[in-house]
Amino acid sequence: MCTLEKKGNIFYLTLTGEDEHRLDPVLIDSIRSLLSQVKSGASRGSVLITSGHGKFFSNGFDLKYAQAAGSVQGAKDRLHNMVEIFKPVVADLLSLPMPTIAVITGHAAAAGLLLAMSHDYILMRSDKGVLYMSELDIGMTLPDYFTAMFRSKLGNPSARRALLLRAAKVTGDEALGMGIVDSVHGSEEETREAAQRLGEGLAKKKWEGKVYAEIRKSLYPELCGVLGLKDTIVLPARL
């Protein structure tokens, strides 16, 4: 489902296997558990890089799991539960005491795109993969924290309209122009190498993680309010 490795100051969280990395309760719980390990093992200069194997970064919530409930109401209850238990994952990433990088080397859709956007930086390959918010196509409104994420992190109204009101499937080059991703690269290997370079550069800064997390939270007051994250004042140990 997912694995965690640490090399030097960099943590590598990887969604494993060749499937779509659908966010069912098992995978969501696994991601939360590994993020807890990352937080407990954090030190000055720590960085998190998250990526996925195969054709997908993540294709969103597991709708087949929801439908397997056997009734319309059961399916709705399962989908609602996934929405609720995924919210703390977003909160964990927004409050993680280190810089975070998402590496998109395949498709990232719906909650999968939100998972990527919960990171500080997004790097994407240009030759394969799209970003896609499927809610309009499947007839589902956006959870409040999804909406807050897009308002907080995507300042371009045209980009928000394309993703949310046109359900556009956005390529890497298009995503760069819209301001959704920070850089695009010609292949999976090049994308991962660029993330590695970025991670190593950030790790060299040796920033205090708690300070980094609090400054990050202060940038997104609406999103943090929806997620229930509160500000904490951190002062230097020595002045």
UniProtKB/TrEMBL annotation:
GO terms for molecular function: delta(3)-delta(2)-enoyl-CoA isomerase activity. Pfam families: ECH_1. Transmembrane segments: none annotated. It catalyses: a (3Z)-enoyl-CoA = a 4-saturated (2E)-enoyl-CoA; a (3E)-enoyl-CoA = a 4-saturated (2E)-enoyl-CoA. Keywords: Lipid metabolism. GO terms for cellular component: peroxisome. PANTHER family: ENOYL-COA HYDRATASE-RELATED, ENOYL-COA HYDRATASE_ISOMERASE FAMILY PROTEIN. This is Delta(3)-Delta(2)-enoyl-CoA isomerase.
